Structure to design on (456 residues):
């Protein structure tokens, strides 16, 4: 038989409407991140093969791509972002080929969750491309005030930590915080993270629980744990001390995450360099650097390698091998026979775990699950959620609030709402815990806090 009789289509010739003309050279564009592995940023963007895996729904599990899952709009896919970047970088006639509002608009709803970095079959890494784009876009158009405020939040927190009660009063006061949110473009329904009464560094100076001997481990007092989630840091130190480890917080800078997420890459590069110079001589396989907040400690294993070149990159590589998440360190010690299951209580606990996007993309939640089931009667069920929707400052920004909450509603919020009150919710990410509270009213704990409670 004949299919569609009488319907004749005249297709253009196969050698017309091609992406590139014959002999066209790929542009070499100077970048802050090192794109040498993909032979430059244009070729990195070209890696998208159009397969459309980034259009999969949340029912298929995984993280990629939360903005598409929430909006179902092609403009918010990983593919759209790779394609617009490739198109403008290839065809722009401007001296700064990143200086195009069209790219900004398509990149805007990317949550920088890094889901694509591990789930896209071509490993398109939009979080990296977006940060690079923003740096050049701001070079041409200036850095907005809100972007600066978010990037430099650690400096404000440092200042505020001199009088935390006053600082918190301003942040919590409806009138003052309302004006501030309106002026800066933060969502009115969000509460700004407040400061703990002391910093983790100050607490550690007075800590009497540190054993005089015992294996020395370094703790990375990241900017979120040092000022806001100090209780989580204290739990980590207490747990390590209880297990016989001597904990030191070495001299270091913040991780640079806030600068990376806002695209201020040159500043992030300076922070990375300082941290590498300070920590590389100290940290080793025997004395690793342990981190609590995934988005902070994982910069050592991801962005620091992209922000450095030459001998500094070699140092960054060496350092990254001994920078571990708390859970990975604990499981390494269990495997080495240094931590025994007899050190845990035999009471029972049901836990539901929401993993951090960066942890899922760059490491894994396997160690978290194994660590939380070291006590014989603890049970862990990992929620098949992707990104929580907060993604650092993304969910705080007024124009992103609705998408942020829609992302939370895809899987995470409904799963938490149907979780019994007696079940503990665990989430290693500071933003995730905040989002869970805002979206469901449930308090989530860092796995480290749950772990401390499980020790005899
Ligand atoms: S971004 Fe990745 S998943 Fe999406 S279409 Fe391109 S290659 Fe496929
Ligand atoms: S980083 Fe996340 S939000 Fe951005 S394109 Fe990749 S999967 Fe989508």
């Amino acid at each position: 038989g004949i299919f569609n009789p009488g319907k004749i289509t005249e297709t253009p010739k196969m050698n017309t409407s091609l992406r590139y003309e014959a002999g066209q050279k790929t542009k070499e564009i100077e970048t802050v991140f090192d794109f040498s592995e993909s032979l430059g940023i244009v070729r990195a963007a070209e890696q998208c093969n159009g397969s459309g895996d980034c259009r999969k729904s949340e029912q298929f599990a995984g993280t990629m791509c939360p903005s598409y899952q929430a909006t179902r709009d092609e403009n918010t896919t990983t593919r759209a972002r790779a394609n617009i970047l490739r198109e403008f970088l290839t065809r722009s006639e401007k001296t700064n080929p990143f200086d195009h509002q069209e790219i900004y608009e398509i990149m805007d709803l990317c949550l920088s969750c890094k889901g694509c970095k591990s789930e896209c079959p071509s490993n398109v890494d939009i979080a990296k491309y977006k940060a690079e784009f923003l740096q050049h876009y701001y070079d041409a158009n200036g850095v907005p005030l809100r972007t600066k405020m978010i990037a430099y939040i650690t400096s404000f927190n440092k200042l505020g930590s001199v009088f935390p009660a006053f600082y918190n009063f301003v942040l919590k006061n409806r009138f003052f915080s309302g004006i501030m949110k309106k002026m800066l473009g933060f969502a009115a329904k969000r509460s700004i993270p407040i400061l703990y009464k002391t910093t983790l560094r100050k607490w550690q100076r007075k800590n009497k629980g540190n054993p005089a001997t015992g294996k020395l481990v370094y703790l990375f007092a990241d900017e979120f744990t040092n000022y806001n989630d100090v209780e989580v840091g204290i739990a980590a130190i207490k747990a390590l001390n209880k297990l016989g480890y001597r904990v030191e917080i070495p001299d270091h800078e913040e991780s640079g995450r806030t600068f990376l997420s806002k695209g201020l890459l040159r500043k992030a590069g300076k922070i990375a360099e300082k941290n590498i110079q300070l920590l590389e001589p100290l940290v080793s396989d025997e004395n690793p650097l342990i981190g609590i907040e995934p988005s902070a400690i994982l910069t050592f294993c991801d962005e620091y390698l992209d922000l450095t070149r030459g001998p500094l990159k070699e140092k960054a590589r060496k350092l990254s091998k001994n920078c571990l998440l708390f859970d990975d360190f604990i499981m390494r010690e269990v495997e080495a026979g240094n931590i025994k299951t007899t050190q845990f209580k035999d009471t029972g606990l049901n836990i539901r775990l929401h993993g951090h996007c960066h942890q899922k993309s760059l490491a894994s939640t396997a160690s978290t699950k194994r660590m939380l089931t070291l006590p014989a009667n603890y049970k862990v069920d990992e929620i098949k959620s992707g990104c929580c929707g907060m993604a650092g400052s993304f969910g705080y920004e007024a124009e992103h609030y609705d998408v942020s909450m829609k992302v939370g509603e895809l899987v995470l919020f409904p799963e938490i709402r149907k979780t019994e009150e007696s079940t503990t919710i665990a989430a290693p990410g500071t933003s995730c815990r905040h989002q869970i509270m805002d979206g469901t009213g449930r308090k989530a704990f860092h796995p480290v806090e749950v772990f401390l409670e499980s020790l005899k």
Observations:
- Residues 64-67, 78, 81, 110-116, 126-127 surround iron/sulfur cluster (ligand 2) (CB under 6 Å).
- The chain has three domains: 36-141, 200-330, 341-454.
